[in-house]
Each structure stands twice: as C-alpha cells, then as structure tokens.
Design brief:
With 373 residues, this protein is of the alpha/beta class. The protein folds into two domains: 215 residues, TIM Barrel; 128 residues, Lyase, Ornithine Decarboxylase, Chain A, domain 1 (Beta Barrel), CATH 2.40.37. Helices cover 28% and strands 24% of the residues. The protein contains eleven helices and 20 strands. The strands form three sheets. Strands 1, 10, 11, 14, 15, 16, 17, 18, 19 and 20 form a ten-stranded mixed β-sheet that branches. Bound molecules: pyridoxal-5'-phosphate. The site of pyridoxal-5'-phosphate has 12 residues, from helix 9.
C-alpha cells in the first residue's frame, strides 16, 4: 500500500446525521434544505450529501452550478437549489442536471426563459428577495416592475420565494423583525401578482434554532449540520456534535539550547532549553499562518503551543512541558483527544474569524477520511 503523510481530516458521519436530526426536529413540519455549498463547508459534499439524502434531507443548496453537477454525480436525486444564481451559458447544463436556480436579476431570468423555451421545458426557479442583506436579491421596491415581467416569462415557473437574514446570530437585534416584515410584504405582493410559491424560506441555522417563522415552510441550515455553533449565545445550549477533526502526527523532535531562533523571522526565540516537535501541516493545508505563535494543539492529552511562524508545509510546537513526546505521536489540531477538545470556535476566535472559515480553509490536499459509513 502507498504510504502517506499523516496529515488528514476525519469526518464523522454519525455526528453529521445526529446534527441533521436535531435540525429536522427543530424544523417541525417544515422541509429541510441542507446547505452543502463550498464542498459541504470543506467536509466533502460528495460524501456528506448522500449521507444526508439517506436520512431524509428534502433538498440541497449549493452556491454554484458546478457544485450542483458534482452532487448529481454523487447520486443526489433530491432537488438542488443553486443559491448563487446562474451565469450566461449555464442554462442548458442547468436543465440537463435538473437544477433549480435562485433568480435575482431580470437579465438572467430572460436568458433562462429563452433557453427553456428553445428546449421546450418549463424551468422552476426561486425568487430571491433582498430584505436587508444588501447582497443579492430583488429589492422590495423593484417587485412592481419585476413581477409582471416574470409573469410574462412563460417557460419559467416560480416555485419558491427566499430571502436571507443579515443579523440572525444576534437574537436581540431589531433588524431581523424588520427583515421579516419586509419579507411578509413581498410575499403578499408575489401572491397578489398571481404566483403561488410552494416553498417559502428565510432561516439559516441561527434563525432555525432561534424560533418559528410561521410564514416559512422550508429551512436552510448549513453550519449546524457540521456541528458549528450558529451564534455565540448558543454556546453549550444546542446538542450539536462537531463533524470534522483535523489531525497529523509528529515528524521530528529536536532539542535546542536557550537563545535559539525558530522558523521564519525567528519570531520565536527559546527562552530556555526547549524541545520542539515538528508537524507536517502548514498554511497550504489550511492551518492558518495567523496561528503563528498563537495556535494550540492537543498532544498526549495536553495542550501544546505553536512556536514561531507557521510555514507552508510545517509547523513547530513547543513541547518542553510535555514529557516523552516521540515521533509518530498523534497531534489533534481540531477535535477531541483524551477528553480535551479544540473546537472550530476556539480556533476561529484566536485568529479573528468564524468557524465557517476554519472549515472551508482546510485545503484539497488534506485527505478526508469518513467514519460512520
Ligand atoms: C442563502 C443562504 N442560506 C443559508 C445558508 C446557511 O447558513 P448557516 O451556515 O449559517 O446555517 C447560507 C450560508 O451562508 C446562505 O448563504
């Protein structure tokens, strides 16, 4: 068998299914669209989506057409919503792969309608409304012009209406109510224009676990499926299990005298005789260079700190206070070891980002190993 570098990610499909059941329970009788864009937030959409389909995910959400094509290749039969819309020239592939676009500009709608007419198909779509994220979506005041134009596009069928919340992770913030009010008003206008959308949706993970949105009948959790805490105030309050662990093992041990400089820029200088463990992981793997001098990992059930600058392929750990560290010892960058844990939230906080980015940064060259069949 081909030997391999020990750096890898473990994906716990049992934890994924557990999190899905939590979301399903919270969703009540609403449909669950599993957001698996960006390669299932770095977890590997080709394995994650089939596992979720098998336990009853109703739909899947991706950011771009190519991600939808990958899901079809992985055996996904359920509807796939392309949240990021459609670019010129993608129409026929969209029909071939039976993907559903979110539409938020009239030119894309016109092109899609033309292409659908030429092919003799009726293409379902979801209407994306910008109720306050100011990202993509028709603004409420545009609907007076947009809705009659869409009604005239006979090869398109409005199947759903969606919007996205900007502040769902801040439950006390009044702007979420403001977005809801705008969404309700837009929905009324859509219906007045003669459309009968079957699917109405607004909730990401934070909104889903915050409470009911009676006008919606579909929810769109992403981060919660991967065990990420959707917002700080949920910490310790949700029964979600981290799905990803990131591990490697010690490649080399060296003892250096006090005063020795370590790694690029010698930003770490040993203040005492020091034992260093070199691990084969670096920023090219997604171990952020911002963790230089700050990151912590688990080794022999204890925490060890990153010494100096994280390199492209290597990182150095100060293991002076951990007796007996040896080449081959397992190192946990993310996940549990001996009753301790490094969470994505802890990692994110150290470098001023969010768990989403920690997951998505784990690069393609790190093999994903799936557990829990
Ligand atoms: C339109 C849309 N819906 C749902 C989600 C899922 O959000 P979360 O991962 O916070 O649950 C995202 C993620 O960014 C999104 O862009």
């Amino acid at each position: 068998m081909l030997g391999h570098r020990p750096t890898h990610v473990e994906i716990d499909l049992d934890a994924l299914r557990h999190n899905f059941y939590q979301a399903r329970q919270q969703a009540g009788d609403r449909q669950v669209l599993a957001v698996v864009k960006a390669d299932a937030y770095g977890h590997g959409a080709g394995k994650v989506a089939p596992a979720l389909q098998a336990v009853g995910a109703d739909l899947f959400g991706v950011a771009m057409l190519e991600e939808g094509v990958e899901l079809r290749g992985a055996g996904i039969e359920r509807p796939i919503l392309v949240l990021g819309g459609l670019y010129p020239g993608q129409e026929e592939e969209l029909f071939r792969q039976r993907l559903t676009p979110a539409l938020f500009d009239l030119e894309a709608a016109r092109r899609l309608n033309e292409a659908a007419r030429r092919q003799g198909v009726i293409c379902p779509f979801h209407l994306k409304i910008d109720t306050g994220m100011s990202r993509v979506g028709f603004r409420p005041e545009e609907l007076a012009e947009v809705l009659p134009r869409l009604a005239g596009m006979r090869a398109l069928q409005l199947q759903g209406v969606l919007s996205h919340l900007a502040l769902a992770d801040e439950p006390e913030h009044p702007f979420t109510d403001e977005q809801l009010t705008r969404f309700r008003a837009c929905l009324a206008r859509v219906r007045q224009a003669g459309f009968t959308p079957a699917q109405i949706h607004l909730s990401n993970s934070a909104a889903l676990f915050t409470g009911e949105l009676p006008e919606t009948n579909l929810v769109r959790p992403g981060i919660a499926l991967y065990g990420g805490v959707p917002a700080d105030h949920f910490a310790g309050r949700l029964d979600l299990r981290p799905v990803m662990s990131f591990r490697t093992s010690v490649a080399q041990i060296k003892s250096i005298p006090a005063g020795t400089g370590v790694s690029y820029g010698h930003r770490f200088r040993a203040g005492r005789p020091t034992v260093l463990a070199t691990i084969p992981v670096g920023y090219a793997d997604g171990y952020s260079r911002q963790l230089s001098g700050k990151g912590e990992v688990l080794l022999r059930g204890q925490r060890a700190r990153v010494a100096g600058t994280v390199c492209m392929d290597w990182t150095l750990l100060d293991v002076t206070d951990i007796p007996g560290v040896a080449v081959g010892d397992q190192v946990t960058l993310l996940g549990r070891d001996n009753g301790q844990a490094i969470t994505a939230e802890e990692w994110a906080q150290r470098i001023g980002t969010i768990s989403y980015e920690v997951f998505c940064q784990v690069s393609k060259r790190v093999p994903r190993i799936y557990r829990g069949g």
